[in-house]
Amino acid sequence: MDDRELQRLIRMAIEADDLAAPSDVAGRIRPAAARPPASPVIRWGRWLAAGLTAAAACLAVLLWWPTTGTPPAPPAGPNIATAILPAVPTTELHAPKPAPAQLVIKDVRYVTTPGEQCIVLSIFLGSGGSCRCMQWRSHQWEPGRTLADICPSELLDVAFKSSGACTPNPEHVLILALAGPPGTLPRTRSEAEAVVACVSRANLGDGGSDQDPSVYASAAISCLPTGVRALAESQTLALAR
Amino acid sequence: MPQQPTSSPNASPTLRELAAAASRGDARAFEQIHLRLAGGVRRLLQSRLHRQPELAEELAQRTWVAVFEAFRAARYNPAKAEVSTFIYAVAYKTWLRHARHGPRAKAVLNEEAAAALAAPDIGADPAAFSQFCELLDALRICMTGPPAGAGGPASILTDDERRLLRGAALGESDRALAQRLGIAPSTVNVRKKAAYAKVREHLTRLGHAPEQPLSPRPKPSDAARDEPGTK
Question: ipTM > 0.90?
């Protein structure tokens, strides 16, 4: 048994250990028995692409909409900011599906700590691939753990742990965790939106086909200062119907 | 087998206690095990089947059917392996059986541990399957350390060594590990090798004989054995 073999077995041991880890996300995923019998296979990659396109459209409209709507000022210093923005039609932009999208950014927390900071972004998509809402939150891993120790699937727990989804019946969620030294992570809403726009562009560039979640992580990193690391996970949810 | 503290009279039973009860035929204990571990099984399979949540759900259900059958036929011995390890191994083999016949079969066989590939399914050879679970249990203890107050032998790995091996197992590069731990990448490599050697030595002491090369890759006959309906 060489080192590589041992490494693979250790990964399995870690996975076995994680099996017993408590999770509140388990009950949120629709069991097979509760599904409609003739439920078609969902191509979530396409849905995600449509949703991210809608998100990009939302952001673009907001940026070019100086007279209507007055979004609240970005947070200054350690605080909690909540911003609810008006519904924005996406038909004028090149969204693949003309779905009314609502962009809600809430629960933005900035905690100043001397060590590595981490922010978790959850983009919730509804039916038709529309962007329902996004959540930004700071997150502290357990002592001794950093983003490198986290399994992508754990991000689901983080996304739902404190407040659940920010919209009823989301169909899909894309979760992006960013970690880096203080000062390198987005601190204002516009900076956060810029990261989402980067992720959206990466997705559009590929034509919206099925993507490995790491593609979104790479896209986010490309728009952030050196030293920032990212981890992404996407998941079809099962709350609807 | 990782040590678990026993529960006080008012606390909810530990997984080990539930496993012992379930293996004696206690249906409610089995239900409790299912309740506690179903989410983990689902997460595991979903992480392995990123874009196929429906399939992950189906394999999770197959896993639980196999686990239930194993309990009913007394093929699981709670004294030998932790129940979470046992259920993990069943889920893993369920996924593997599916993956071996998928489009990425070759990649899967290259990426997975030879020991895991060589381990039989629970129905084929319960003793060998149990041995595989014991190996995983031994590694779990290496990676988590003995629980506080367990009174067992001291951990064979230091905290730093555990962090290194965990990071490496989860795909972190030497450079990233070095940056995180504040040491040189070459030092990471040296320490990793030393830690692997300690683990290997520990497994040898436990009788897992890791110095022996395990069967490297499944032979065609192994794959045929896994074909549905060719038991």
Answer: no
